[in-house]
Amino acid sequence: MAHTEYVNIHKDVFSAIRSEISNNVGAQIPQPILIIGPEGTGKTTLLRQLYEICFEHNPLWIDGRFLFNTSDILEPLEDQKHPIVFIDDWNFYLTRCSFEEQYRLRRFLYNEGAPMLIATANRILPAIAEYSAPFFEGLKVVYLNPIKEEVLSDQFKNPKELERATVLWKLLPPTIQSLNLTKNILLTNPDAEKDIDCLLSILASQYYDLYSSLSTYSQKILNALSKANTGMTLREMRVESGLPTNILTAYLKRLNTMGVIGYDRTIKRGTRYFIKDSLLSKWLSRSCP
Predict the structure, then answer these.
(1) Could you tell me if 137 and 67 lie in one domain?
(2) How many domains is the chain partitioned into structurally?
(3) Which domain holds residue 73?
(4) Which of 115, 143, 171 is the last residue of a domain?
(5) 0.85 exceeded by the pTM?
(6) For the chain, what is the radius of gyration of the CA atoms?
(7) Residue 64 in contact with residue 88, Cβ under 8 Å?
(8) Within 10 A of 102 (CB to CB), how many other CB atoms are there?
(9) What is the β-pairing status of strands 261-264 and 272-275?
(10) 174 CB contacts (<8 Å, ≥6 apart)?
């Protein structure tokens, strides 16, 4: 996505952090910033854009997946030539390292002349939320919200394209990744009737991996549920899948915990279970006879 398009989506957040950088770089003790948002909301994109406007400050980029202790952060900063350090997926460090390790990093960051830290995390972690945690205080936390459907009208000016984009958007999580996926489909596919087929072909490997990782009983349950648009009761699933009630109950609970299926108890004649991701249901109905 082009820089101008991105700023239009997270304009306020981008501007606020840019201002913080201007005010903090070179300060005696610059305040660390943590950007928090669910997967796909644009944390890495935002961090990369901020990194790119800071080249004059010789910034350091660190991928959080490769952080296993505080030394992995401090060693690249020993020469003190990087007044700003960007850490993507800092949540890996926060979950892998003890509070003792994290206090070591905090002491470094809150010393005079320390670099300014700008990092991302996918959620609020104990290292941030617990009162005794090293980073309970002192971080400026910025939240990225899910992308709203209204953004489509800014990205798709043609009414027919907007209509097609809206149909696809309703099938996807509200993220920048989904927006890019929608734009790519409209760019490469001239036939609106094939939009969902294109989307399914792109996501097919992801769904295949999920399906393959499940037990045989879970697969049978999903196969059965994919044949009913309005969901199924326990009795209907027992008939369709051939599984006994005790097996169904146990594996339905597991699939619900995973977020794969949901249920509706508002219907009077029995709870109805359904696959939460309508695209997964479509993929299953096409892949499983």
Answers:
(1) yes
(2) 3
(3) 3-143
(4) 143
(5) no
(6) 23
(7) yes
(8) 17
(9) antiparallel
(10) 146, 147, 148, 149
